Amino acid sequence: MEVIETRIDIASDEYRANYAAMEAQVARLDEELEKARSRRSERAIKRNEQLGKLPVRKRLELLLDRNTPFLEIAPLAAYGLYDQKVHGAGIITGIGVIHGREVIVHANDPMIKGGTIYPLGVKKGLRTQTIARENRLPIIYLVDSGGAFLPLQSEIFPDADDGGRIFYNQAVLSKMNVPQICGVLGLCTAGAAYIPAMSDDVVHVQGTGAIFLGGPPLVKAATGEEVTAEDLGGAAVHCRESGVSDYFAEDDAHCLDLIRQIVGNLPPAQKTEIGRTEPRQPLYDPREIYGIVPVQISTPYDCREIIARMVDASEWLEFKAQYGPTLVCGWARIHGYPVGILGNNGVLFSESSLKATQFIQLCDKRGTPLLFLQNIPGYIIGREYERGGITKDGHKMVNAVATATVPKFTVIVGASFGAGNYGMCGRAYSPRFLWMWPNAQIGVMGGEQAAGVLVTVKNDQLAREGQPPLPPEVVEGMKKPIMDAALKEGDAWYSTANLWDDGILDPAKTRDVLGLAISAALNAPLRDDVYGYGTFRM
Ligand code: COA
Predict the structure, then answer these.
(1) What residues does 189 pair with on adjacent strands?
(2) DSSP string spanning 458-525?
(3) Strands (E), 382-477
(4) Percentage of the chain exceeding pLDDT 90
(5) Atom of ligand 1 nearest to the CA of 115
(6) Measured distance CA(240)–CA(217) in Å, rounded
(7) pTM over 0.90
(8) Nearest CA to ligand 1 atom 34
(9) Which residue intervals of 51-175 are DSSP H helices?
(10) Whose CA is nearest to atom 22 of ligand 1?
(11) Angstrom distances, CA of residue 486 to CA of 119, 443, 492, 499
(12) Which region holds residue 208: left if phi is over 0, alpha if psi is between -120 and 50, else beta?
């Protein structure tokens, strides 16, 4: 295949300015990730030690194979929310390796408000289960939680995608034969008691692990009975008397070792074969992406330059290179896995939408995973384009993206606006994983445009009533809050806090993350749906 030739001048002022800006964003990312990993109150650290429990990161270390990667999911969930103390929404989730087999781990952090579940913790739990279901990954729950964070109970409990869905999903995963193994390393109270109960295997730590529908305070309030947590639902009770738990563990380390043994005893994973070749490094340094991505999101650049720094040997075979040039499509390899890549080089026109539709169908038929690199201001608008049928051509692309059955992966590398987000496989189009770069922005439209629309609507209304248009100072006052909100609620930090993505990525590490993600995705059959598409509007 041809090598993508770079046109980047790494000595230019523009490159240097871009590089410095992205480097600063990545430094902020690293700093925030470190805080999320390690910032816990002295009191919580002491209490954990007193109880003889291991910190959650140590538990993961003992659970997973040494010197293997851990692909953490949404490590900055709840970032800036809930008094800025509920790092990662109180849960660590990620794909790791046990006895050479990929699994997904969902571990409460008892050093954050007793491991209680916040609304975004529920969302993160559901996301973990979606990843397990779509990729057929065994799921390991390390439970140590005070249950629902009671001050926010109305946001956690009643609705379809609230707490109850976790246990519903466990039943569905069980029916699908996705293994679920639960370590009881702390409290599993009330609803959380169903996490072990609905799992296939339950390993229970004596002394600290307890399962009950109502904890000692509730039992006392309801019946007057005084009972300790251990006596009410400890390992001895559930391993010897109730039969709720299956394996008795002396302590955390023993529990994690037993879980490793259970995973080692599972039938081997049936990974899908898609013709992997020997991985090769890109010809250009991935860190050069820092200097390529413009500071201003609206400044155009050639996405082939970032593709060249992500794919093996910087080689690719471009599809329809001269047709529909605002969308770049082609075949390449990432860590040896074949991928079909779609990257934006401007607004989507009819031609680019039709090209995307054809390319997606080809990849889908050939069993080639799809990678979307989103930097999309939207589909083209205006009289000429509506007459040319942009809506029906955009529809074909959206239809193909929605119904393609090969694994899809999305990285938002810049803008993600309007229906462009849909056509380029936004979250609602079920990519197996979706990440943002730190510079990315997402929304129905940019703040300036949104504010402009609302001013026009208001002026039209005034005109109908025979009144003059808004004076400039009122227009400015009206636009500012809309633009400010769009900026704040459209950035990567807000997105990742709300779990609209699986995390913010350092652009230079994107290739490695994609390699791990593709590997994880291959635990599922290439297609578990009926192959085919909806009706294309012609
Ligand atoms: N909702 C809200 N906050 C809770 C909570 C809950 N369900 N359970 C614990 N917390 C908070 C505590 O108020 C405390 O907050 P603080 O650090 O700001 O003071 C923090 O979590 C740690 O609790 P603490 O009791 O000091 O820690 P611990 O390690 O000794 O015990 C638990 C942790 C979870 C075992 C214990 O707090 C507990 O039993 N909680 C109640 C569990 C329960 O009955 N839940 C029912 C909900 S479905």
Answers:
(1) 212
(2) HHHHHHHTT-PPPPHHHHHHHHHHHHHHHHHHTBHHHHHHTTSSS-B--GGGHHHHHHHHHHHHTTS-
(3) 408-417, 433-436, 441-443
(4) 93
(5) 34
(6) 24
(7) yes
(8) 146
(9) 56-63, 119-135, 164-175
(10) 114
(11) 23, 7, 12, 17
(12) alpha
Check if the beta carbon of residue 102 is closer than 8 Å to that of residue 92: no
Q: Report CA(143)–ligand 1 centroid distance (Å).
A: 14
Query: pLDDT tens across 203-229, in order?
Result: 999 999 999 998 898 899 999 999 999
Measuring from each residue's beta carbon to the nearest atom of ligand 1, which residues come in under 6 Å?
47, 113-114, 116, 146-150, 187, 189-191, 215
C-alpha 152 – ligand 1 centre gap (Å): 14
358 Cα: distance to centroid of ligand 1 (angstroms):
55
Cα separation, 398 vs 395, whole angstroms: 5
Question: Scanning the structure block, which residue is given the tokens 């006052």?
Answer: 477
Mean per-residue pLDDT of the chain? 96
Please report the pLDDT score of residue 449 as a whole number: 87
Q: 290: CA distance to ligand 1 center in Å?
A: 44
Q: Specify the residue with its C-alpha closest to ligand 1, atom 43.
A: 146
Q: Give the distance (Å) from ligand 1 centre to CA of residue 117.
A: 11
